[in-house]
Design goal:
This protein is an all-alpha fold. Among the domains are: 47 residues; 30 residues. The chain has 4 helices and no strands.
């Protein structure tokens, strides 16, 4: 049976039968549209989302590693500088020791 003959046969049917055909066609069309939509959504999530997350994560990790290396290099250079400064200058008494010895000197001179 051809499609045009089937349409003519449906047109000759009563209203309640034609409404069944209409709602059946609507339901069938919606199922096809939903199937295509679900397929495209799952494909989109499989292809793009994990790769984007992995790319962003690896970029963030490499940035952190670079910053850590820079910080370590700066810390080493500061340590090397401070070792050079402390070895070239004579060691001084701490401020509290100097103050206490001056206080003792003041007491002995006042008596």
């Amino acid at each position: 049976m051809k499609l045009t003959e089937k349409i003519e046969a449906i047109r000759k049917q009563p209203d309640y039968i034609r409404l069944r055909w209409v709602w059946g066609g609507v339901a069938f069309s919606m199922l096809i549209i939903l199937a295509i939509w679900i397929f495209s959504i799952t494909t989109m999530f499989k292809n793009s989302a994990p790769n984007t997350f992995v790319d962003e994560t690896s970029t963030a990790i490499s940035d952190i590693q670079d910053k850590t290396k820079d910080s370590i290099q700066q810390l080493n250079s500061v340590n090397n500088f401070s070792e050079g400064v402390s070895s070239s200058q004579p060691k001084e008494k701490s401020n509290t020791q100097t103050q206490s010895s001056e206080y003792v000197d003041l007491e002995s001179s006042s008596q």
